[in-house]
Design goal:
The protein contains six helices and six strands, in the order E-H-E-H-H-E-H-E-H-E-E-H. It is α/β, with parallel strands linked by helices. The protein has one domain: 3-Layer(aba) Sandwich (Rossmann fold). Strands 3-2-1-4-5-6 form a six-stranded parallel sheet. Helix 5 links the parallel strand 4 and strand 5. Helix 1 packs parallel to helix 6. It binds magnesium ion (MG). Magnesium ion (MG) binds next to loops.
């Protein structure tokens, strides 16, 4: 029996303002984006699961302390709790090695989350600000992919580049509307 679908979100540039060329190193510099909270609310109203799958190479490089990463994710859930919602899972990959099966664009994190929670990958969606996120979704076999060219800083290096995504949005503010119209009921 196939489970319910999930919207898998990238973290930096989608859930929170992108860190630019570096990493978000401390929870004090983790700024949740309003449109992300709105998007999660729509996903939940449709009966879908919502999760984050995030590459965090800064952890293995030693620039993002694990305690700070955990504090960021607590603050993210606390922010969503103000809206009466929560993420079903927050997965991250600290590996620096591109061959790691969990490091995006490899699909390991998505497949692992789906197996753990019983989610149906074939009906799921992937949303990210980089083409690598789109590749991740396609490698995992999700139904639809979304690339958002607005990363919160306006410096997204993938902005305007060709995309294999089913939907390309220039503004994160448009994501809740897209999900409201295009995401089927679970
Ligand atoms: Mg990103």
């Amino acid at each position: 029996m196939a489970g319910r679908p999930c919207v898998f979100f990238d973290r930096d540039g989608i859930a929170n303002v992108a860190p630019g060329a570096g990493y978000v190193e401390t929870a004090r510099r983790f700024w949740v984006r309003r449109a992300f909270a709105e998007a999660v609310k729509v996903v939940k109203q449709k009966g879908w699961a919502a999760a984050i799958a995030s590459n965090q190479r800064g952890v293995s490089k030693g620039v993002t302390p694990l305690a700070e990463l955990e504090a960021m994710h607590r603050s993210l859930q606390a922010r969503l709790a103000e809206e009466g919602i929560s993420l079903d899972a927050i997965a991250w990959c600290g590996a620096a090695d591109g061959a790691d099966p969990r490091r995006k664009p490899n699909p390991g994190m998505i497949l692992e989350l789906a197996a753990e929670h019983g989610w149906d990958v074939s009906r799921s969606w992937m949303v990210g600000d980089r083409e690598r996120d789109v590749e991740t979704g396609r490698n995992a076999g999700v139904a639809k992919t979304v690339r958002v060219d607005d990363d919160g800083l306006g410096h997204n290096p993938d902005r305007g580049r060709p995309s294999e995504a089913d939907f390309v949005l220039s503004r994160l503010a448009d994501l809740p509307t897209l999900l409201r119209h295009a995401l089927p009921d679970a």
